[in-house]
Amino acid sequence: MRLPRKHSMTKRADFARARKDGQAKAGRFVVLSTLADPALPCLTVAVITTRKVGKAHDRNLLRRRIRAILQLHGERIADPKRLLVTIPRPGSSSATYAELEADWLKQAKRLGLLS
Predict the structure, then answer these.
(1) What is the 3-class SS of the chain, one letter each residue?
(2) Per-residue pLDDT tens for 24-63?
(3) Is residue 70 part of a domain?
(4) 57: Cβ–Cβ under 8 A, 6 or more apart, which residues?
(5) Which chain regions cross the lipid bilayer (predicted)?
(6) More confident residue, 36 or 2
(7) What count of other Cβ atoms lies within 10 Å of the Cβ of residue 64?
(8) How many independent structural domains does the chain possess?
(9) Would residue 115 count as lying in a domain?
């Protein structure tokens, strides 16, 4: 699955709605929040990296890795009409790609996202 612009979450209200009204699961390296919304045309994703995660190059690396994970496993999401927010936790910049992917998949399974 490629992540074109239409899959990007751009409105602050959508971030807040997914975090407030949706389900969230926290793992060792990421926090995954999701909210089903039948009005959406497709899966809408966001990656929020705060300064607590690390310096700018660490945050950029984490964003690239999480986008790669979404591209790889995004087609397996059972109900694509939903908001999906991924937030790396402090300390996740020291994780390898495999560790980050395993944690993301574990949280997605806990939320019942993957088919």
Answers:
(1) CCCCHHHECCCHHHHHHHHHHCEEEECCCEEEEEEECCCCCCCEEEECCCHHHCCHHHHHHHHHHHHHHHHHHHHHECCCCEEEEEEECCCHHHCCHHHHHHHHHHHHHHCCCEC
(2) 999 999 999 999 888 888 888 899 999 999 999 999 999 9
(3) yes
(4) none
(5) none
(6) 36
(7) 12
(8) 1
(9) no
